[in-house]
């Protein structure tokens, strides 16, 4: 296995990896994820790869691209923010079906972290679905720890918007305070 920067000839394999990841996530949490059409994934990937703050690395085995990781520099927090101003990168990883559990993800993460250090980053941040227990076990095994939560609530079909928030003392509780 070799880890190397992605090149233009890897594009179709990267689209396949994104679609494989979409199928995996849609199976885990179909209320949030879906599998977009291939053309939409290709257009999204073109935009993503054109971002000068993003680098893509691929794992190749016997000439086949079997995984990828992208490393994206994050904006430093505003000096007035309570978040410590540590240069950081965001990482996204995908390993092809049939190649998971064979060390591909470990090799990609090690390469991504090395690249992040080369770019002056002191922290790696990533997000993942809470339903993806295998990924959580993988990241914890690499030393990653949870530091926050993303919460979601669908409001399009809510028959009484704000009702639960008012009962819980939320933003509709009548305090009159606006942000």
State the order of secondary-structure elements, H for helix, E for strand: EHHEEEHEHH
At the fourth level of CATH, the homologous superfamily is Gcn5-related N-acetyltransferase (GNAT)
CATH topology: Aminopeptidase
The number of distinct helices, counting runs of at least 4 residues, comes to 5
CATH architecture call: 3-Layer(aba) Sandwich
Classify the beta-strand content into a percent band: 15-25%
Strand order of the largest sheet: 1-2-3-4-5
If you had to describe this structure to a student in words, what would you say it looks like?
With 179 residues, this protein is an alpha+beta fold. Helices cover 34% and strands 18% of the residues. The chain has one domain (2-150): 3-Layer(aba) Sandwich (Aminopeptidase). It has 5 helices and 5 strands. Helix 1 crosses helix 2. Mean pLDDT is 87; it is low at 166-179.
Provide a short characterization of the protein structure.
This protein has a single domain, classed as Gcn5-related N-acetyltransferase (GNAT) (Aminopeptidase).
What are the SSEs and their pairings?
Layout: E1 2-5, H1 11-28, H2 38-50, E2 54-61, E3 64-73, E4 88-95, H3 104-118, E5 123-125, H4 133-141, H5 163-167
Parallel strand pairs: 4-5
Antiparallel strand pairs: 1-2, 2-3, 3-4
Helix pairs in contact: 1-2
Question: What key attributes describe this structure?
Answer:
5 helices; alpha+beta; 5 strands; Aminopeptidase; 179 residues; disordered C terminus; five-stranded mixed sheet
